[in-house]
Amino acid sequence: MRFTRRLRQEAGDDLSPSLVSVLACLERKGPLTLGELAALERVKPPSVTRMVAALESKGLVRREADPTDGRVSRMSVTADGSRTLQRSRTRKTAYLAKRLATLNVEDATALAETLPVLERLLESDR
Questions:
Q1: If residue 74 lies in a helix (H) or strand (E), which one and from where to where?
Q2: 6-10 contacts: CB < 8 A, separation 24 or more?
Q3: Which pTM value belongs to this model?
């Protein structure tokens, strides 16, 4: 938790972790309906509706009519949204690279050996 919190602090943006998560999900999987997004983010539809509205007001996502069903909207990331995510990732990567450079060889090796295990744990959650 401390590690995640520290990386969020380094991101340097004014978005909450929930908003960043929704934005990243839309970038990765979009365009999505609100229902699809709520399911992926594991939140209730009213919550995702508020989060999308906040991102939309900042110009980070756009709402478009579904081509097959005009009653349904699909959300996608705007160019500004993609740039926001990229800046955030760049800042976090720079911070992490700086911290990793301070590790001694033994610690760096131990970390490198642990990463595939952590990756498998995260993949099994999808």
A1: strand 73-77
A2: 6/95, 7/92, 7/95, 7/96, 10/91, 10/92, 10/94, 10/95
A3: 0.80
Q: What is the pLDDT of residues 4-47, one digit of tens each?
A: 888 888 877 789 889 999 999 999 998 999 999 999 999 999 99
Fold held by 2-123: Arc Repressor Mutant, subunit A (1.10.10)
Residue the block writes with tokens 């060889």: 105
Q: Where are the domains positioned within the chain?
A: 2-123
CA distance linking residue 88 with residue 7, whole number of Å: 9
**Neighbouring C-beta atoms of residue 30, cutoff 10 Å:** 18
